[in-house]
From TrEMBL:
Protein name stated in the entry: NAD(P)-binding protein
Record keywords: Oxidoreductase
Species this chain originates from: Favolaschia claudopus
GO MF term (any one): oxidoreductase activity
SUPFAM superfamilies tied to this protein: NAD(P)-binding Rossmann-fold domains (SSF51735)
Highest taxon in the source lineage: Eukaryota
Alphabetized Gene3D superfamilies for the sequence: NAD(P)-binding Rossmann-like Domain
Organism classification: Eukaryota, Fungi, Dikarya, Basidiomycota, Agaricomycotina
Pfam family, one: adh_short
Amino acid sequence: MPPVALVESTNASYHPSYTPMAIFVGATSGVGQAMAEALARQTNGRAHIIIIGRSASAASKILAGFPKPPDEDGSWKHEFVACDATSLRNVRAVCDALKSRLTRLNYLVMTAGGPDANSFTSAGETEEGVNKHLVMRYFMRYLFTQDLVPLLLSAKEQGQQAHAMCVQGAGFGARIRTDDLGLHNAVRRSWKLLNGKVMPSVAAIKGMITGVTYNDGLVAYFATKHPIITFTHIHPGQVLTPGGTNVDLGWLFAPLAWIMKRVRMRIALEQDERAKYMLYALLDQATDRGGIYIRGECGDIVSAHGFDSDFKSLFDDLETATLSSKYGVLQGIPMKGYGGSDASVAGLIRYTNEVLAGILKN
């Protein structure tokens, strides 16, 4: 775990020669909000920061609090882009609009969750037929990453940092299992009468855990496909916000939920405190060469690997490649805290592309 003094001094030393361009998906509350605010403060507002979320009113208050540079040289901008990320069609439309007007992207940070994605009691599917936990915890993150990678590559080609970060539950190494990838069977088998009322839903818990481990697959896939870009899956720890500490286990387990909430409140940090560690990991110049990083709640590196710029990914041909089924290993490299195998990641990506093709075909 890096000392707090090192984290703070490293963040304070960030003074890029260019105006950084950052997109924060889900920054109208929680650690995403705090990260955007911290970057704005560190750059004295001289950054192009885009907050993507659902609440325009919350975003307006956040952006109003950003420091504003005295000059009007046009190199900085603070803006909000509305997007209900539970709809993958909405995500695609937002990405298309961004690519039409942006020339580069230094930081893509995805923290969005929402009440459905964090519910222990409710399990279901969106209007597009995607599991409500997985759409926010995984699918929208995959689509934002896939569609905005060209902007990250453009920044890297200009000699700038290029970093995509998934803030989820990194480092636990839960396995990516390729049976029932969309959790449709888990939802169908759940006792719908109990959902949201009596007790936790097994399908909901599976959705939360599965969404976390799919992020390992996300960063592994893109890191090997684009080795000059940095891809990070990081654990934010317990964050002292209503969404970060509230626990709803249904009325049957209400006493246990009360105990869990009190415990979480004791170990949680204010979102500004958590954000300093997340920002430390995001801006870390030691990761500039690209690669995959699995990080803990204090920005500490659980495992990492960089790839040569001419690295040939085994995922280049998902249909014909012969891939290892050994978990915790990425293309021959043991990765502590990593839950994928080459075969399971390939299966996940194939399934993801099928889902996206079905939804975005029109």
